[in-house]
Write a structure and sequence with these properties.
By secondary structure, the protein is α/β, with parallel strands linked by helices. It has one domain: NAD(P)-binding Rossmann-like Domain (Rossmann fold, 3-Layer(aba) Sandwich), CATH 3.40.50. It has a 3-stranded mixed sheet with strand order 2-4-6. It has a two-stranded parallel ribbon with strand order 1-5.
Length: 161
């Protein structure tokens, strides 16, 4: 893609998004599903299992920030990408424990108590190998910004934003 873009055959752009949380819908088999499930299900009155230890960091973005970043990458002039046509978009680094603490702060202790810490070795071995912090200097130079904090993401989900 870089080579074809450099030669002018295409205007290729590859955008890497963080794990999206809190996404709507139901849990699925993706290793990242817990990042939404430990917030979404307790808010809906259901229990949720967190398969990773509380200290596990995850690089996340809200659905609204991810959408905005995709649109910004699409609309950016080609020269904003420089020599690399791939781009990491900004996100937040938050631990699973911090996510549940946010849930308690925003929705209350009873809601947060619906999260069970049930380590799943298969999921944990995948998630703990993911990068939890990425450099996003070029994306930020294009005007992309992460959400200010995880509280904002949870509040936006509750508000239906």
């Amino acid at each position: 893609m870089n080579d074809y873009s450099r030669k002018g055959f295409i205007d290729g752009r590859a955008v890497r998004l963080p794990t999206i949380s809190v996404r709507p819908g139901r849990p699925n088999k993706a290793a990242s599903s817990f990042a939404s499930g430990i917030i979404r299900e307790p808010l809906a009155g259901e229990t949720a299992a967190c398969p990773v230890p509380p200290e596990t960091p995850v690089w996340i973005s809200s659905p609204r920030a991810a959408t905005a970043h995709l649109l910004q990458a699409h609309d950016a002039p080609a020269n904003a990408f420089g020599t690399s046509r791939s781009l990491n978009t900004p996100g937040l680094t938050v631990t699973a424990g911090e996510m549940v603490a946010t849930l308690e702060r925003v929705a209350g202790r009873e809601v947060a108590a619906r999260v069970r810490w049930e380590r799943d070795e298969a999921v944990a071995s995948i998630v703990t190998r993911w990068p939890a912090r990425l450099e996003t200097v070029r994306a930020e130079a294009m005007g992309m910004r992460p959400e200010p904090d995880f509280d904002s993401i949870v509040r936006a989900y509750i508000a239906g934003e």
